[in-house]
Specification:
348 residues; alpha+beta; 9 strands; 3-stranded antiparallel sheet; 15 helices; globular
Amino acid sequence: MEPVLAAQRWDLPAIETAGDLAEWLSVHPTQLDWFADLKGLCAKLDRPKLQHFHYRILAKRSGGVRLIESPKRQLKEMQRRILSLILERIPPHPAVQGFVKGRSIVSFASPHAGKHVLLRLDLKDFFPAFPAARVQALFRTLGYPETVADLLGGICSSATPRSLWKQRPVEIGLNEWREAQNLYTRRHLPQGAPTSPALANITAFRLDCRLSGLAKSAGAVYTRYADDLAFSGDEEFARRIERFSMHAVAVALEEGFDVNHHKTRIMRRGNRQVLAGIVVNERVNLRRADLEKLEAILTNCVRFGPESQNRENVPNFRAHLEGRIGFVEMVNRAKGQRLRRIFETIRF
């Protein structure tokens, strides 16, 4: 892989050898090999203390398995250094709105407000869809020698130990369990690592270029928030939306991504058009029912105490409510401020 010319303008740290990388990350060279684990030794060990991640297996509401892989302290510190001094210096594609400073689900949804038709696609198993080899190739295109690129890719990727998959939770089907095992035991971007969102965005640059160009050729607008893809346009685009959808899916497949076809939505004017919980029919707003429900919870907290409304036993209910209000303020400032005034009268 040849380094891209644009990388010369990104002020990336010069790291020529494995020894330089170990010094840059403040670890001994043997520790560097252990954390990168290019030979996959950790996946063969049934000793949690020697593994680099904490694992949490969740059943998806829509079916399937989600694995949260949280790096342990020292590995997380190394990943954060890679994120701040390398990955965050690389500009993302303009269509990307997720995990980028200054962008949000509001900037993801707002370009689609007031359009005749809105198409939403969902990419399947977004983070594990990026194999470690693809991440290592990315570091080579940034100008790093092969040895350094492989080590950087190893530090930012994970392969789960097979011992993790010995006992299947009853709520997860056998076929879904086997698919997840095959997916996560291969080296991939771990969901839970600080570097994974930025690496996913950068590695998917070609996908975003192709989909953005496809949308432009059809007179449409394209944005992406992680695994959510959104396209919208006028009446002419609405007439050929089904054909366009097939082309967009084909591009995603060619770029190495599967599409959750049961999550594909074509939303026309006259019906509710929603992206990431935000209504975009005329302008960016939240569902009225969601706002009314949150207001009722806050009002009941004032009247009967917060314990009466914490039916799911959320550990820090105050922070939970404040986070929901912050989300409303981001989308609808006036409504959010009204809810915050009610929140401030609650006795926690």
